[in-house]
Amino acid sequence: MVETRLELEPEVQEILKCIDNNQNFLLSGGAGSGKTYSLVQVIRQVIKENPTAQVACMTYTNAAVKEIEERVDHKNLSVSTIHDFLWDNIKHFQKELKSTLIALSNNVDVKRINIEDDNVPDNFYDECKDGIQYKEFLRLKDGIISHDELLILTNGMFEKYPSLSGILKDKFKFIFIDEYQDTNKLVIEIFLEHLIKSTKSNIIGLFGDSMQAIYDDGIGNVDVYKGDAVDNLKEIKKNQNRRNPQLIIDLANLLRTDGIIQKASLDVLAPNMVDEKIKDGEIKFIYSSDGNIDHVKDFLSKELYWDFTNLKETKELNLTHNLIADKAGFIGLMDIYDKDPVISLKKDILNKIKYNKKNNKPEIEIEEEDTFDIVVDKFALKNRQRLLKKDVLLQEPANLLLYNQLKDKPFSIVRKIYLTKDSLIDNKKQDTEEENRKGSKRDKLIKHLFKIQSNISLYSDKKYNDFLRITDFRNQIRRIEDKRILKGNIEELMNVGMKTIEEVINDANDKGICLIDDHITDFKNRNEYLYNRVKDIPFKEFQNLYQYLEGYTPFSTQHKTKGAEFNNVFVILDNGKWNDYNFEYLFTNRVDKESVLKRTQKIFYVCCTRAKEKLAVYYHNPSTEIIDQAKEWFGVDNVIPL
Predict the structure, then answer these.
(1) 3-class DSSP state for residue 27?
(2) What is the pLDDT of residues 190-243, one digit of tens each?
(3) Read out DSSP for 522-573?
(4) Global pTM?
(5) 65, 176, 468, 491: which has the fewest Cβ within 10 Å?
(6) Burial level of 8, CB count in 10 A (0-12/13-18/19+)?
């Protein structure tokens, strides 16, 4: 046994010592350090040393679940996303589920769980024949919870019913959480606060990197739980870097704030090794006054031999989807889902209502029969220039047309219109081979358009068997003539020209390629305003969106690229009017804006460490102070004006 352990990584050996001492642990490692490799080694070893013990491993994405399952195939190992794990371990406790959900709905401090009754009775869910269910949508009155509510409910259950902690510990001797920094605070509380109240024994192990905590709903760090005491997390640091060449490692070390200084792995199998030497790699800080990205890419292509047509090797990283939408050709759709001016005004009214309630301000009475226009006039909201927001809105003829669609509808209906870009762009792939994850937030209209374009793409790519299998025409093919008709129909559909989205939906239906089903009919009825906006967009714009989301373009957001790696990475430092980030603060060390600085520092760290060979960063019109800092970080010779 000892000899076997000595063959393992030093960090894994330290983890196993923690397990021997019955102490929970935290493995901290920077980008490219091989944290997943360590996790797999730990899982294999604990299964070997504890052949009857059940091991649970949770991670952030389904792709990560699949990767771990492929590397460790054992009947005692349960790998899942955090949400699936939590639901699997509470779903059978229906009595406790109902009681906790009712208690939370009656708690005024819990905003997300609200059944809209003054006081929800204890027997509220007695008639709920299917019990409390977890689905992709929320319908609390029917006992259906979704993604976010599950975390609140699970935390509430473990707090209210301590016996659940003992049951979970009995079930799993080892519980490991990968990418802990992306885990919600409520989840960490379950495992590091509620579970330790049980006297039963098990081991909790966290794996991750606080510098890569770039999602708003993640805990970020677990510093308050760290320490040498048995009830604390024993931190083990992993300092190697298997991914990046030396120049990128040096840059990344300057950005870290947690004391981890990475060193290039001396493993000859590491990608950053060549002929048993660490590769230097290439880093460039490029700036110009004209903001012409094409000019920069042309320079990288011609002078430094970057190939932006090779989507697997080269990525362009922007901060937001909005910044990409114009380049990729779907700005019209993005503006509808993310920048609707009338829905923005409605949101301002709802925020004013919440503000008045929270601050005990006089409430403005809204009658049941009040139209949207009447409510807008009642609130008479003004902008910073003290102008009525309604007047400013209606100065634009296009906005007037939108406003007129809703002005005479009851406010009770308009207030429920909810637009979010997640309904449009959720579940983006990094490349064409990446699998879709389950639980996409795309709405039913966008999913229907995807089905149409998928049919077109399969036929265009000559994947005829796959095309026949998924097309709605398949049941109508009984003779050769039917195939000829289908061929003519799909080829006619492929020639979309300047047809609108609605025209293509109708064409696909009439030609039997993709039928209009109840989902689309229901969507049109429930989301009339949104449908009316989308239907007139050229279908070619949706095809551009499809290409982007399916990984056929070199574009990616900086958040979506986390966990991925590419030979060449081109980072565009543009805040995109997003106040949560500011790259100027990063290069000028604005400590008076600490939260924004830290957030920007982390996203920049993640971007830089995606590159396995070459990194280029572009800054539009930087100040002298920014250029001076860039010279310190990148080296004088690597700061290039265009």
Answers:
(1) strand
(2) 999 999 899 999 999 999 999 999 888 899 999 999 987 777 899 999 999 999
(3) HHHHH-HHHHHHHTTSBHHHHHHHHHHHTT-SSEEETTTTTT--EEEEEEE-
(4) 0.82
(5) 491
(6) middle
